[in-house]
Write a structure and sequence with these properties.
This protein is α/β, with parallel strands linked by helices and about 240 residues long. The chain has a single domain, classed as Rossmann fold. It is about 35% helix and about 25% strand. It contains 10 helices and 8 strands. Strands 1-2-3-4-6-5-7-8 form an 8-stranded mixed β-sheet, with helices on both faces. Strand 1 and strand 2 form a beta hairpin. The longest helix is centred in the middle third of the chain and has 15 residues. It is globular. It starts with 7 loop residues before the first helix and ends in a 6-residue tail after the last helix.
Length: about 240
């Protein structure tokens, strides 16, 4: 596919919506904010949406970055994003959620996990609080093993293995997720303290290790059923999740 040369008039609409976050020789390109009305429990709530793209070659020539998009095959890969609500940059108190993509739970509403519930409920908590952000981390499927590997792990789970055992049998760590890029984006959007919506101590540790001001943690449990009871128990017993 030939590289497209962007019209200068079109670029003028985009250049103020792109920000480069330098990370050594690499860069994270953050695009937004974009108005995103969301149907949340029957009500329309307007969020501000951002997406980001990591590149090994840092350049402040944003027109060049955009020109390369049509030949980059980005649909074959994963990009993450963040939904922001309220005055996230300046309000004193903000709730945030680092949510790992779950194709089966978030999209299909699977009851094998509680991910779909956590996604919607954390968005509800953020809007009720008045300020916050939900980071949707697209390379975190199956705690970092990917969707195809997750499907294979599900077969093992149907034959008696728990989540941790299934991942380890396939050669993966229990949890191989990385939050570095999301943390860089968070730093670019907000410097004031945040309260993290999570049961996972590893997420809390990652934020604190990066020097982010964390004012507290809010747990998020719910949607317990016969289908995910063992999954949730394993989170507590083997992965150290907190109540």
């Amino acid at each position: 596919m030939e590289q497209v040369q962007l019209n200068s008039n079109v670029f003028s609409l985009l250049e103020d919506k792109i920000k480069m976050i330098k990370k050594g020789s690499e860069a994270i390109y953050l695009v937004g904010p974009i108005k995103l009305p969301v149907n949340l429990y029957g009500k329309t709530v307007e969020f501000k949406w951002y997406s980001w793209l990591k590149s090994e070659n840092a350049t402040e020539d944003f027109q060049r970055v955009i020109n390369q998009l049509s030949s980059a095959n980005l649909a074959d890969y994963q990009q993450s994003s963040v939904l922001v609500y309220g005055d996230f940059e300046y309000d004193e108190e903000a709730l945030i959620r680092m949510h790992s993509i779950c194709h089966t739970g978030d999209i299909f509403g699977s009851k094998r996990c509680d991910c779909g519930y956590q996604l919607k409920q954390s968005m509800k908590m953020i809007t009720e609080h008045g300020t916050g952000a939900l980071f949707y981390l697209a390379n975190h499927e199956g705690r970092g093993i990917g969707l195809f590997s997750k499907a294979i792990a599900y077969i093992l789970q149907e034959n008696g293995f728990d989540t941790v055992e299934a991942n380890e049998e396939l050669g993966f760590a229990d949890d191989s997720r990385n939050y570095d890029d999301a943390i860089e984006v968070l730093k670019a959007l907000r410097t004031k303290p945040v309260t993290l919506i999570t049961n996972n101590p590893k997420k809390l540790k990652a934020l604190k290790a990066a020097g982010l001001p964390v004012s507290g943690r809010t747990p998020l449990w719910g949607d317990i059923s016969e289908y995910n009871k063992k999954y949730l128990q394993t989170k507590v017993k083997k992965s150290g999740h907190m109540g």
